[in-house]
TrEMBL record:
It comes from the Eukaryota. Residues 47-217 form the TH1 domain. It comes from Pheucticus melanocephalus. PROSITE patterns: TH1. This is MYO1H protein.
Amino acid sequence: FLMQTSEMLQKICMRNLVRKYCRGLTAERKVQLQQKVVTSAVFSGKKEGYLESLSQPFLDTRLKENDLNPKVLQLIRGENIKYVTPVVKYDRNGFKARERLLVLTQSSAYVVEMAKIKQKIEYSTLKGISTSNLSDGIVVIHVPEDNKQKGDVILQCEHIFETVTKLCILANKQSVVKVVKGSLRFRVGSGKEGTMVFTLGPEPQVFKDKTGQLTVV
C-alpha cells in the first residue's frame, strides 16, 4: 500500500512540475518546441547532423519580407509569407547551380530569381520531400506530373533541418518526407526521370558525373 501511495505521489508531483513548466513557456518557446518535435519525428536517427541541430534554435525566417523584390511581393500579394531563405537550385537538365530564394507562404512554396517567380508549388499538390541520410543540404521537392509543373525541384539549403521542418509543417505533409540512402529518383519533366547519387568524400561537392547523374558528395 505504501509503495502504491509513493508511486501515485511521484506521478502527481511530476504532472505538477510538467504543468508548471508548460505554463511558464513563452509563445516563442512553444513554437520552437513544436517545430523541434516535428524535426525529431522526421530526422532523428536518420540523417547525419541531426543531433548537432538540436541546440540550434530555428529562426522565424532567414530573410525578411522587405528583402524581397517589390515585383515578387506584388505577384504573391494576398498570401501570408511565412519563411524566406537563400538556396541553390540545380537545373534538372545539366544540373547547373543557380542562386535562388525559397519563399514559403501559407499555401504555396515559390522558387524566386530576383524579380521573377521561377516555380510555384501549391502545398495541396506537393507529392513528397526527399533528403539524404548524409550531412549534405540537398532537398528535393516532388511535384505532380502535369502541365503546370516543369518537374521536381532540386535545392541545396544551408539550414536543411529548419527549411524542411518549416515546409512540411506549412504544407501539413510531415508523412511525405523521406530520408533516403544511396540515391533517389526525381522527375525531370515530359515523363523523364533523373537519378541523384549520394556518396562520401574528402570534401563537399555537387557535380554531374560521366554517366549524367547528379552526384552529391
